[in-house]
Amino acid sequence: KKMDELIPLAEKYGMPFIGLCTDERGVASTHERKLEIAEKIITYAGKHIDENKVIIDPVVLAVSSDTASASLTLKALGKLGRRSLLGISNVSSGMPQRALLNQVFASLAVKEGVSALIVNPLDADLVYAVYAAALLSGRDPGGRRYLDFFSPGEEDFKFTDPLSQALIDGDAEAGVSEAEKRIAEKQDPLEIINTAVLPALEKAGELYERRVYFLPQLISTARCAEKVLGVLESNIPPETRTPEKKVLIATVEGDIHDIGKNLVALMLRNHSCRVLDLGVDVPAGKIIEEARRFGADLIALSALMTNTASRMAETAALIKSGNLDIPLLIGGAAVTEKFASGIGARYSQDAVSAVKTAGEIFSQK
Predict the structure, then answer these.
(1) Which residues neighbour 68 within 8 Å (Cβ) at sequence distance 6 or greater?
(2) Using CA atoms, how far apart are residues 313 and 345, in angstroms rounded to an integer?
(3) What is the C-alpha to C-alpha distance for residues 165 and 2, in angstroms, rounded to an integer?
């Protein structure tokens, strides 16, 4: 009867329709019945309005009266496979620490794919939990919504150059499109790099150092820049290219961590370096051998664990004993500036400072 009254209104005004999993027998108490009622609602409503405008609320009962209600509702949510809505506070009615139950239930609902939640927006902890749940359950690609919500941001900052803005936004599709457009317009690729790409990379580095940007945003900008530079550099005449500085990079023997190393390599490539990445768990002897063969202008080493940092000292000793004129740059969680100085190396605490330090080293050679 209610659907007969409401569906024509939704059809007339083009509005979405929210269907609750209840019928003449009351609220569905099993996940099978919830899905059965949902299907009836979708079938009936779909005869009059677009099915995509039908939103299902599986309706949760208070766990104080039915301890299985929350888990059954979540199970139904996970199997709905369509737009859904869930009121949260009912689950905790009659229980102590209601806010805690609401937060956890909302997080679990996000994991199961709920589209929207009815919650108290003034419950900051619950709102925080929802953003965190979306990130941790893979529903926030790149962590964009989480970072936009929690990082301070620079609302007034915008590049006037659309290519620079695409880079700072990490929008590879827009960046590549803009780069290809400028090449088609016969613009000088080197000038594009100097006036649009490098300023964006410098700005991203600055924002990262000030903790306005965080690691996912820095990686996003770096990956976007890599694709844009691929377009631009392929159009630079060979005779006008500046000789690339060669950097050999590796994670030392006994250490298999490579996230930091990979980001440093990516950032260096974006700053016109030719990078040879030897990967992880690389013995000092192989590092020296490959550095000679490659003609490296710089060796960059990473170590995450304290017990592998000593391998950096081993590499430094081999550089010295072999009379190699190759500077050593080291970094990683297990490394300090004092340790670096003690083995005659330069230190960088992150990818942004690694690029700056590498630039200083190259300018001194």
Answers:
(1) none
(2) 9
(3) 50
Amino acid at 304: L
pTM as predicted: 0.69
Q: Which long-range contacts (CB under 8 A, 24 or more apart) does 99-103 make?
A: 99/123, 99/125, 99/126, 101/63, 102/126, 103/129
pLDDT in tens, 314-336: 999 999 999 999 999 999 988 99
Q: Report the half-sphere exposure of 185 (CA within 13 A, side-chain side).
A: 8
Cβ-based burial of 46 (10 A; exposed 0-12, middle 13-18, buried ≥19): middle
Nearest to 176 by CA among 228, 119, 105: 228
Give burial (CB, 10 Å; 0-12/13-18/19+) of 2: exposed
Residue 154 is predicted with a pLDDT of: 56
Band (150; pLDDT cuts 50, 70, 90): confident
Structure tokens at 165: 């803005």
| Neighbour count for residue 243 (Cβ, 10 Å) | 8
Q: Tokens at residue 41, please?
A: 């609602």
Three-state DSSP state, 27: strand
